[in-house]
Amino acid sequence: MAKNGNVSNTAPDNLPEVNLKELYAAVSAVNDAVIITDSLGRIIFVNREFEKQSGWTLAEVCNSTPRILRSGHHSSDEYSGMWATILEGKCWRGRMLNRRKPDISGEHSDVQYYWVDSTISPYFADDGALKGFVTVQKDVSELVQAEEIMRQQYEGSQLRAAVAAVLTEDLSLRERCEKVLPLLLDYVGKDSRQSGGILQFDDVAHLLKPLVVIGEEPCCIASVDGSIPLGECVCGTAALSGEMVISDVSSDVAVCNQDISIDNSFGYCVVPMMYGGTCQGVFYLRCLIDARRADEKVKTYKTIAEMLAMAFAKERAIAVTLEAQKKAEEASRVKSEFLANMSHEIRTPMNGIIGTANFLMESELSDETRDLVHDIQSSATMLLGIINNILDISKIESGRMELNRVQFNLPDLLHQVMAVVKVAALEKNVSVILYSEGIPEIVVGDDLRLRQVLINLLANALKFTVVDGAILLRVVLQQQTNDLLMLEFSVTDSGIGIQSEKQKQIFQPFRQADNSITRKFGGTGLGLSISQNLVEMMGGELLLASKPEVGSVFYFTLPLGRVALLKETAENTASEKGASSEGSALQLRILLVEDNKVNEKLASRYLGKMGCQVTVARNGAEAVSYFPSRASEFDLVLMDCQMPVMSGYDATRMIRDFERNTQSHMRIIAMTANAMEGDRERCLAAGMDDYIGKPIDWAIFRKMLLSL
Description:
The chain is α+β, with helices and mostly antiparallel strands. The protein is built from 19 helices and 23 strands. 27% of the residues are buried.
């Protein structure tokens, strides 16, 4: 046995003699590199496989040490551990990265390396003294490369999954990038100067701007604010070219598309984030420049860049969409405010015109004067219809049009609609006929919108029907269930008809079949568009069948709710309401808050005619001055909404504040020319009890007062 408990490797006494040439030939035939050194580590023999792997010959390495193979890849601690093992007489096994003999011929200017699985065994003399070491090295470069590729592929897939998970989180783009960058830096490997950054491209300023940075700034960012114009330095170069750039830190020289072989050199890898052919930004990483690992790393970098680019593009698209939505909402708000103001400004004098004309018609007038007042009424009513149509179009376009669902008497509604158009029909000597079949009395739906559609269709038919023509309003029950009725409505005329190629056009806002129609027949081109939208909102579809010089038929099928209500019950209820509302004096003390003098006079006359005592306040502040000391003098406040000094909304709020201390409540009815969706709710939110729009229907207002 040898020293240190090792098995003896001295030759047995009966070993046959072998000459050195035979021994050399035998060792040289081994497919693995063999190195034999003396006890001081000096090389005394290498075989031909060693010469093939390392490029060194026996003559060149004889008396040298294996240090000539050192690549610089392994630490001193690794070598210390190896020496400690073999000096104890033990066998050491491990994987080493060797460096080939430098190529002085210039054929290979870069340094070449190869991996080996190495076994180092000490051998001893007969007396147990250490004679030297035998090293056997198997070239495993291809195996290591395959393992490295597999490792890189696995790490790359792990990184892609982690980045994908972060990018789907509900965080801002900056917050997501703050979580992605450390993942990228962990992937490239840590070192004492770990740094990297993600830069976003500003397509307005045409600059790259840092979004998130860790560690040192890259040497290519030189400007004070950190922004980089396209084409400047490696970051700008990558962004402009759309190609990945790798640069050495010391020189900042781009070496992309070249074979990177700088040993143990750190540099910046700059990867453009491209989406749809457009650069969304770049990310840069300080990493070890190593050609042996570049391929898989590059694939992973490019995949991550695509993922980030999609996130950036999505964020940009969202920002553009939000900005467009913001502008659209602002435009809609401005439009709504304009229409509300125009509604108020137009309806306020319209209230005076229509109210005064109605009041005059109730007076003693000569036939000529009555005819003139009638013309005023007709013109004002026509103008109000146009205003209402414009407001309806605005409500429909903004999605603010809402339907009501109430019980109403369908035959009564049809007769009311006929009454509206019969006066105008008589003037043209046009017959207007109503035909109904199987229709119930009480149905559920939006009676106001149905009435509006039928009046629009009848008025349109009357407009285009020649003298001595005829119009038919036909309503037929098609189908019924326990709670649903399907009714078909149609309006047929003997008018001028519409050419087939023009029929779709007439349902577009502000469009008619021909420009000459506007000149000849008048109209805004809104009625049919509004009618079509209203019918669709109620669950039907407005259709047209027409033939030039023969006439047209507009028709739709509408679902209405069915209720069981006896005819006599409805009639009794109606008669009771009529009896209670006719002929009785109201005898109410009313504070009328109105800044328009014409409307003030008109309201005072109608209220006085109803038996009310009226006190006038010119604005909201004047109305508030009556509270709380003189509140007992009034039973009701009729409050205009838009006034100088103080609006009706603010005045109502102040009155309600006074009432919190007195435990009282004054009835306040809003009187406003605003007619947009939500105006009623705004009045109620301000503390008002009810709402009536201008122009005021004084018969409806009387019923409102009677219900108090």
